[in-house]
């Protein structure tokens, strides 16, 4: 943060910050203590349209002409700059997102990796030769399919990973030769400006990336309606995401949406490893992660033992100031979010669930909470929590566990803990999710793997290689040999 005199920003279009005039401003606050971290000037409708115009010009005039090695060099250089800024940026993530320092540093390390994956991917956008003589009349013809950039990419990102989820969209989009209009979450926009400046310092042309500041509406509505947008990539709530899909009739759309991640623990599992993984998966980022562990189905012979161990592990976690190195669990993003989570826990207890540990709230801090005896009627089980609590539910048979896990409108990732490989693969095949981890909790995500859900959890895939595929289109070229 020492490189910035003040954290008061506006939209950045063609390299110029638009923070003057009578634009209304939004304050960016520290979710831990409510103090002001900075502010943003809200983009006008004209700003949004200007950003699209500038991005279209940047695509046709700059990005699609830029050789792959140059795009790769910019991304590699940005990775170096990001790594050098890790300490300062971790503090900014703590201030604007409430992320404990160790989690902030982990997010930055992942961001460096995403940039490197994207740089490598820029040089590996292979096409293919097509044997035209497989078809009648195709003799003495040559066919090829090239991967070409899709155009202008609109990237709309959430608050919970202000760096890495921006990079999961921006890095592959640039690697593929697209221009980008980025709309970061209004609660955590400052990290996006930091990243923009690193990309510019690394040599990214000013017309390649444009940043729009403000709430989702009306910015998102204008982006969806504009036919110049070739691709929309969104991470956020299911309601907003599917609304974007409805509005964006012409654009290609990737949606990475919510979930209610099930995790299954069978009696033969390594309980030490399972409890450690599930505890991390439930309380990392204060539970504000799409694949956070929320429902844990435990086979009856080991249910009480898992409940005891998880409640003990949760009670040892330190919830507090994200700038304190001793903090394990930081605040939730707003008082309203923390109050909602507390109310859900209280409602579950009122309906017969047992509170094993936690359940108390101080401002935006909800103590790591473990709930037993909840059932599928309760919000803590059937809705997406996005909060630091986990529900433990007993089961008797494999079939019962699968049915309970699949009893959800969501399907992003799941975890299965067992030493029986046949069972693990059988259950993984039966679970209705976009991904399944065996002997790891649902939370785990690596940045090069395919990541995306089914049902209400979204459409399309992220993960750098897979995002590159979705941010390009195949162009056919045929040659008649003379």
Task: Describe this protein's structure.
- The structure is a single chain.
- The protein is an alpha/beta fold and 482 residues long.
- The protein has 2 domains: 8-257 and 457-477, Aldehyde Dehydrogenase, Chain A, domain 1 (3-Layer(aba) Sandwich), CATH 3.40.605.10; 261-446, Aldehyde Dehydrogenase, Chain A, domain 2 (3-Layer(aba) Sandwich), CATH 3.40.309.
- 39% of the residues lie in helices and 23% in strands.
- The chain is built from 15 helices and 25 strands.
- The chain has helices spanning 45-61, 68-84, 86-97, 101-122, 164-175, 190-201, 216-225, 238-247, 271-283, 300-316, 335-350, 379-382, 398-406, 421-430, 464-470, and strands spanning 8-9, 11-13, 16-18, 25-29, 36-41, 128-130, 141-149, 152-156, 179-183, 209-211, 229-235, 252-256, 261-265, 293-299, 354-357, 361-362, 365-366, 369-372, 389-395, 410-411, 413-417, 435-438, 454-455, 458-459, 472-480.
- It has a 7-stranded mixed beta sheet with strand order 15-18-19-14-13-21-22, with helices on both faces.
- Helix 3 (86-97) packs across helix 4 and helix 5 packs across helix 15 (464-470).
- The longest helix has 22 residues, at 101-122.
